[in-house]
Amino acid sequence: xxxxxxxxxxxxxxxxxxxxxxxxxxxxxxxxxxxxxxxxxxxxxxxxxxxxxxxxxxxxxxxxxxxxxxxxxxxxxxxxxxxxxxxxxxxxxxxxxxxxxxxxxxxxxxxxxxxxxxxxxxxxxxxxxxxxxxxxxxxxxxxxxxxxxxxxxxxxxxxxxxxxxxxxxxxxxxxxxxxxxxx
Length: 183
Known about the structure:
Elements: H1 6-33, H2 38-51, E1 62-65, E2 69-70, H3 79-94, E3 98-101, E4 108-111, E5 116-119, H4 121-129, E6 132-142, E7 146-155, E8 161-170, H5 173-180
Parallel strand pairs: 1-3, 1-6, 2-6
Antiparallel strand pairs: 4-5, 6-7, 7-8
């Protein structure tokens, strides 16, 4: 049995460390460079949302659509929040649902500590005026490598969550830019 010299042991250890470091930085690079087809992701989200609805959603009655907000500051949205909300609404329209866009920032009473939406009397009035059955709402949370999104259809009449779906997207360059712009 041959004895390895300290020099060979040091070189082997250094190479091992470099290889492990290379793998770690490669992972971070991959997340940043990950391409996402947001339209395809939203198509899957809309399908899941409609398929899991507590009551069947009527295509004749209106769904009110809002911008999605940062879960850590429910009065804050971003280009990302507006785009995801608009894209889900657009997908619902393409499926034949009657969707009306409303910007409800001042019409929603928000409980910041609980992160919950409570539909206000004003929203109920808007819902009744347009024969709305539900409002499309969503929140997003920014993590280390991903942004986590929750989408809900909420009854205009009693605030019951009719359907909910969660998904995540990698924090690539495009999504990071959208999260920090347009606030």
